[in-house]
Amino acid sequence: MKKITVKKFGGTSVGSPEKIQAVAQRIKNSLEKDKSYVIVVSAMGNTTNQLVELAKQISSNPSPREYDALVSTGENISASLLAMSFQELGIDAISLTGAQAGILTQDLHAKAKILTIKTDRIQKELAENKVVIITGFQGINPNLDITTIGRGGSDTSAVALAAALECKECEIYTDVDGVYTTDPRRISNAQKIHEISYEEMLEMASLGAKVLHPRAVECAKENNIVLHVRSSFELSEGTRVKEVNEMEVNKPVTGVAMNENEAIISLIGVPDNPGVAGDIFSELADNGINVDMIIQNVLEKNDSNNISFSIAEDDLEQTLKITDSITKKLTCKCVTDTAIAKISCVGIGMISKPGTAAKMFSALGRENINILRITTSEIKISCAIEQKDAQKALEILHKEFDLNDN
Amino acid sequence: MKKITVKKFGGTSVGSPEKIQAVAQRIKNSLEKDKSYVIVVSAMGNTTNQLVELAKQISSNPSPREYDALVSTGENISASLLAMSFQELGIDAISLTGAQAGILTQDLHAKAKILTIKTDRIQKELAENKVVIITGFQGINPNLDITTIGRGGSDTSAVALAAALECKECEIYTDVDGVYTTDPRRISNAQKIHEISYEEMLEMASLGAKVLHPRAVECAKENNIVLHVRSSFELSEGTRVKEVNEMEVNKPVTGVAMNENEAIISLIGVPDNPGVAGDIFSELADNGINVDMIIQNVLEKNDSNNISFSIAEDDLEQTLKITDSITKKLTCKCVTDTAIAKISCVGIGMISKPGTAAKMFSALGRENINILRITTSEIKISCAIEQKDAQKALEILHKEFDLNDN
Fold it and tell me: Which of A80, A89, A146 to probe by mutation at the B interface, max B CB count within 10 Å?
């Protein structure tokens, strides 16, 4: 059997018929006779948002099943257009929907996880020397209903397909040419990172470096698949996300990530009963809200706690509905702070190089940037700061950890 | 089991989120507790054309499989939006794609016929008291690939579903309030027809009265289903297409239909060998080209024939490709005439009332309208005329056969 290559093209890469044709032409130019090709596509440019907009005009809270049936059509369109483009270039190609490609997910809508991929149909088409184009973002549940796996999920579709097809590498084509030490639109001398570990990428992605969806990185790590993030429009090599031995790493910090769209919610005077925190965060998790930076301070003088946590600003409305019912039940207070940015230094090298946290705090302190919250993991130090300080903090830390390009 | 009602809403009826909401509201207002509802929808307004346009930007001749995968997404969008609209009104509803609804077609693209409908999933959802919304126009072939059943095919989907669900009637909601004695945009005092036979409707539909797709009428006739054509925007009764006994009919002509987009192709000097005509029309049929008004004149003085036939102007390019290869093979000549209109008087009553043809020809003759071709069936007389005479001919015949409203 031929070696299979999986390539994923995001929404900006297939944003117009011309761009779709360019994708087909580019792949044609790189075709090798002893390889088979599986191409995963997102919806064209803004299509998914337009479909979401249609749904919103009808319902503020549409049924998840119908929502998935609706938004999944965007990928069907781009997949068949890409197949046509290949055919127009004289290359045999076929588009497969999630259902046709055998992508089976949980019986859950909008945020379903891929359970397994029955690759029979894909293998059959590859055996007939076709380029197989597969819709990202979607699958089917055991009921044969269409499910989607969450926004940005096409990356995950691609990695899951690479795993199911036993590939060693999965190429993610996007509108940037790789992962940078920080957002190059904010810091002009940010450098492209040539290799980064899954763990670092995971921290970077979760923290606002939106090049790769975190689930895709996790899935790649679990299946030991190298992710090659590269530009759809340029031929240069991008960034490889792979297993990296920390011994080989020189710098303590690989990148500095910024997330400006954070909100901090503080519950003041939560009764100090066992299980209360568990209840709160279970309910948030059940509603699919990602909670980050949980801090609990026990107040010494009475039997209540303050619990605070940060969330994405987009989830604020839904979160407040949940916390409202909680504060009523527990008769505690809820305070919200929305003008929050989170800046994070990420680096597998900090495991073997102590003092990174101290260096970060001192650098911010020198510039009078107030640190509101701190959380750390083995390879990441994050500080919540005021949004007004975001750009300045980024500049300072990027320079402090020797990431500037020159 | 509850009685099932099938209602089909066309593209203009679901042309915007507001219109889709209005459809849901209208159906809600008419819901009866002892009935179940199946709603068949077309794509929103101009969606299918937009998808076709996208395909054209990539290929002048896209693969039929990918074309079907592409254009079928339009119905998926309107079906899920309509389901959301019902849910927003507190009515349980579910959208099903052709595949989910068990609509199995031939293994043929763009013009597949529906072979059978496995109604298990539909019945299951109806048993749970859901309004079931089904995408028109699409199905799946034995390979699980998406097929479409031809433009305007949503009418056929609705009738096939009504047959599979053993309904007596199928309501077709559209942007006109019924079938008229002729196109009311052309003749202002055209009258609404309250009842019309399948045969007459079939002739009217084939001849340019574009209210109902001919295949839908045929399918309704075969399964003895009453079609009720009515307005999506008004509550008045429309036109019922059903079995009508000719004895009950007073007028010889029920309606006058006009088709301005015709072309006549004449093959001059075709060798008078048995089987030649069969070969020509088989090849056209294999390419899905509908041929109409076939006329063959044997030339007395030699052993060759003239064969002429009319087709839709849209099919001209494809037809000429086929006739070119035929004329080369048979060394005959091909002449094309495109500025042709066809005017037809249709009426089940003409069976029992002789002299209708003579009356038609005389009326046209009185006004110096030149008749280029004539064909007749039991309930129809058609004349090919020059396009410039079309409107005048329509006015004359509508009056001549006493169809004017007053």
Answer: A80
B171 and B260: one domain? Answer: no
User: Which tens digits make up the pLDDT trace of B139-160?
Assistant: 999 999 999 998 668 999 999 9
Complex-level ipTM: 0.78
| Rounded CA separation B86/B27 (Å) | 9
For A69, the closest chain B residue by CA position comes to B80
Q: How far, in whole angstroms, is CA A271 from its chain's centroid? A: 35
Which residues of A are less than 8 Å from B21 in CB distance?
58
For the domain that residue B289 is a member of, what is the CATH number? Answer: 3.30.2130.10
Ranges of chain A whose pLDDT falls below 70: 151-152, 206-209, 246-248, 298-302, 406
Interface of A with B in 271-300 (CB under 8 A): none
Pair (B166, B264) in one structural domain:
no
Last residue of one domain, picked from the residues A158, A175, A192: A175
Confirm whether A370 is domain-assigned. Answer: yes
Residue environment code for B161-199, b if the CB has 16+ CB neighbours within 10 A, otherwise e: bbbbbebeebbbbbebbbbbbbbbeebeebbbbebbbbb
Boundary-marking domain end, from B132, B147, B175: B175
Q: Any chain A CB within 8 A of the CB of B91? A: no
Q: Under an 8 A CB cutoff, do B65 and A94 touch?
A: yes
For residue B48, the chain A residue with the least C-alpha distance is A77
Q: Which residues contact B354 (CB under 8 A, 6 or more apart)?
A: none
Instruction: Say whether B210 sits in a helix, a strand or coil.
Output: coil
